[in-house]
Design a protein that fits this description.
The complex is a heterodimer of chains A (113) and B (464).
Chain A: E1 4-8, E2 11-15, E3 19-20, H1 25-38, E4 44-48, E5 54-55, H2 57-72, E6 76-80, H3 84-92, E7 100-102, H4 105-112
Parallel strand pairs in A: 2-4, 3-5, 4-6, 6-7
Antiparallel strand pairs in A: 1-2
Helix pairs in contact in A: 1-2
Chain B: E1 2-6, H1 12-15, E2 26-27, E3 30-31, H2 32-42, E4 47-52, H3 56-63, E5 72-77, H4 84-90, E6 99-103, E7 106-107, E8 122-124, E9 132-136, H5 148-160, E10 166-167, H6 171-182, E11 195-197, E12 200-202, E13 206-207, E14 213-214, E15 218-220, E16 224-226, E17 231-232, E18 236-238, E19 242-244, E20 249-251, E21 253-255, E22 259-261, E23 266-268, E24 271-273, E25 276-279, E26 284-287, E27 294-296, H7 302-334, E28 342-347, E29 353-358, H8 364-369, H9 375-382, E30 387-390, E31 407-410, H10 411-415, H11 419-436, H12 439-456
Parallel strand pairs in B: 1-4, 1-6, 4-5, 12-15, 13-16, 14-17, 15-18, 16-19, 17-20, 18-21, 19-22, 20-23, 21-24, 30-31
Antiparallel strand pairs in B: 2-3, 6-9, 7-10, 8-9, 11-12, 22-27, 24-25, 25-26, 28-29
The chains are: A alpha/beta (113), B alpha/beta (464).
């Protein structure tokens, strides 16, 4: 499954692929950057990770790049629906210290409101 | 009394963690089957039969003929659908004088009150595939209870004698057993080969710089390397050939052999086996084939070697330009006229023999401080026979079983190790370098070695 980006008001929703790894990280980054370029008024981005089963350091690197990009806009990147396996990666890399993580997409969207 | 160890069970949780057969899975850095042998010895057993299945070759290779423990170990096979009792009955000799039977992942846990002389016939566990231990006084039944329910009373008697077998039927139980041993129970077993200081047990060739923090209780096997600013412990069991990289924190965890743990990670309450990470709380295991996070130390990274090769040759060329004239001057002034240099022969890159001259200069200390002794091998870097930075070249007839990157400048140079220490560290240095090697690491290592030699001179030679 590929990455899709949609918007709900000024909040962008990035539906993450099943595997966010070195094989597609660059592609996801370019897709997200292009989408953000075209949607300049989006201030917050929520990464919906409900379908994501595999994450590696490249995928995490893109998440951090997106977090930085959203920070420059005065917004944030929030993570939602994190499954067990990628959660373990987030835990060992201490990425939980930089991302706001929500149980569900709805919860993350309401936090952006 | 004789013992029969049945290692044929399928232990799914161990299989998803590592390719090591489960009887060899370390509990506090010691294969499970060694604890069985130790119990057998305590009960007076001198003859052990090990029934093999998966991983038979590895188990047999590890146990050998049992000479190491002063017992005789024989091997046999039992089909998965075969009845173990029928196998025991087939030959009365197998059970003559009493029997200790252990099958499946059972840990023979000792209590403070462990007194082998008081341990009588009994049964723990029902299904051999899930873990079973039985002691019979004579013959296959030999006074031992036939069912687990009947065995409850006997298990109480065992407990009174200080023996409380534990089934390790999932990752959580395996993790708990490791932590219990680290918390102090380990002193009830043999703990061979570790130096111990304040509940920190370290094997051979454990490298930890002053910036690394080791919090007891902690156990680390042989050839382990902790990088600066890492924090390891409390309650960590680390296997052999493990590297914990910079700024990483490891607590309440078990790290199995041959694991590299990357930089700035936080491993808490986990089991790490190579690139696999397991959560003992729910049994989930993920594979992270990511060289920046977790990986097997032996992982090949050949792509980097092209860049290393080019940068190494360029740096060697620069060093030759810088040191060459000084070397020529030293040769002109220092070498006795007509003296022939000794030729050093070693196993070089791609298993080709490399040779370079070693002169005895007039001022050996100054010669070495200026690293002029490394000028001839530097020329071999240009010809592709040696690496600029890596491991110490070994003599041509020495078999090498580790990753081998023979080089001009080594970790031993950077630390200033005398030859005997350098030899002891070779293995872990080689494995660390195989994982960490790259242009930056090689140039940094070369720089550190040159600086160390310049400022502190060559390391003292070992006393004869």
């Amino acid at each position: 499954m590929s990455t899709t980006l949609t918007r709900q008001g000024t909040v962008g929703v990035l539906k993450a692929p099943e595997a966010w790894t070195a094989s597609n990280a660059e592609q996801v980054r370019e897709q997200a950057y292009a989408w953000l370029e075209a949607n300049a008024d989006v201030t917050h981005l929520v990464a919906d990770l409900a379908d994501m089963d595999t994450l590696d350091s490249s995928g995490l690197g893109v998440m951090i790049a997106l977090l930085k990009r959203m920070g420059e806009r005065g917004g944030d990147l929030k993570l939602a629906g994190l499954r067990k396996k990628p959660r373990m990666v987030i835990e060992i890399t201490r990425a939980y210290r930089v991302f706001e993580i929500f149980e569900s997409l709805e919860e993350a969207l309401s936090a952006c409101a | 009394m004789k013992a029969v160890f049945h290692t044929g069970a399928d232990v799914a949780w161990a299989e998803q963690l590592t390719a090591t057969p489960w009887p060899l899975l370390p509990v506090a850095n010691r294969p499970l089957i060694e604890y069985w042998i130790e119990l057998a010895l305590a009960l007076g057993v001198r003859e052990i039969t090990t029934l093999l299945d998966h991983g038979a070759a590895a188990i047999e290779a590890y146990l050998g003929d049992g000479e190491r423990w002063g017992v005789t170990i024989r091997y046999g096979f039992l089909r998965p659908d075969a009845d173990p009792d029928a196998w025991l009955r087939r030959d009365p000799e197998r059970t003559r004088g009493g029997l200790l039977w252990i099958a499946g992942p059972v840990f023979p846990r000792r209590l403070e009150s462990f007194e082998p002389a008081r341990i009588g016939a009994g049964l723990f566990g029902g299904d051999p595939a899930r873990g079973q231990m039985r002691i019979a006084t004579d013959g296959p039944g030999g006074g031992a209870p036939a069912t687990e329910a009947e065995g409850a009373g006997a298990a109480d008697a065992w407990r009174a004698a200080g023996l409380a077998p534990e089934r390790m039927d999932d990752l959580g139980a395996y993790h708990r057993m490791n932590m219990a041993l680290l918390d102090g129970e380990i002193t009830r077993y043999l703990v061979p080969g570790y130096s111990e200081r304040e509940r920190t047990r370290l094997g051979f060739n454990v490298i930890y710089p002053p910036g690394a923090t080791l919090d007891p209780p902690l156990l680390a096997g042989n050839d382990v390397r902790f990088e600066p600013l890492c924090r390891v412990g409390p309650r960590v069991a680390i296997g052999n050939r493990v590297v914990v990289d910079r700024q990483t924190e490891v607590r309440d965890s078990v790290v199995l052999d041959g694991t590299y743990i990357g930089r700035n990670l936080e491993i808490v309450g986990r089991i790490v086996a190579g690139s696999r990470l397991a959560d003992p709380a729910d049994g989930s295991v993920i594979d992270l084939p990511d060289p920046w996070l977790l990986s097997h130390l032996e992982q090949p990274l050949r792509g980097r070697d092209v860049a290393r090769d080019l940068s190494g040759r360029a740096a060697a060329f620069g060093l030759l330009l810088l040191l060459g004239p000084l070397f020529a001057l030293a040769r002109l002034c220092g070498a006795p006229r007509g003296a022939r240099p000794r030729r050093r022969r070693a196993l070089g890159r791609r298993d080709r023999i490399v040779e370079w001259p070693e002169w005895r200069p007039l001022h050996p200390g100054l010669f070495a401080r200026l690293s002029l002794d490394r000028v001839p091998p530097c020329a071999r870097v240009l010809s592709g026979r040696l690496w600029l930075a890596g491991g110490r070249p070994v003599a041509e007839d020495v078999p090498v079983e580790r990753p081998y990157y023979p080089a001009v400048f080594t970790y031993a140079d950077a630390r200033g190790d005398p030859p005997a220490v350098a030899a002891a560290m070779d293995d872990i240095d080689a494995r660390f370098h195989a994982r960490a090697r790259g242009v930056r690491e090689d140039l940094a290592l070369c720089g550190r070695a040159l600086w160390r030699r310049l400022t502190r001179g060559p390391p003292p030679e070992d006393s004869p």
